[in-house]
Amino acid sequence: MIKTFHHAVQIYYEDTDHSGVVYHANFLKYFERAREHVLGGDIINMLWQDKGCGFAVYKANMIFKEGVEFADICDIRTTFKLDGKFKTLWHHEVWRPNAVKPAVIGDIVMVYLDKKKQLKPMPSEIISI
To answer: pTM of this prediction?
Structure first.
């Protein structure tokens, strides 16, 4: 069974464009925050400091079903799974308050790299989440 993680995001005026909806690129920031919430900043930092490895986005796909507006408090629902030795697949959904469907869907493929940008097998700290 795949576990769903929840991360609340407050939409500020600075997040929106001239029409009052969230500028599309900002969803990548929200997804990044949700992933950090799932993995834990302490683990991400330890992997970089102790092992010299970190994560990079390999592929991103987003579908925008409806606008998210200033002052919304959204629930970023995140699931992830391993895809082979080097990749994780992340599925994010942005839910507005009282919504019946997600406003935005994002699928992100992450890889694990060393400082020389060489692929490394996913560490046990991530596999065990």
So the answer is: 0.92
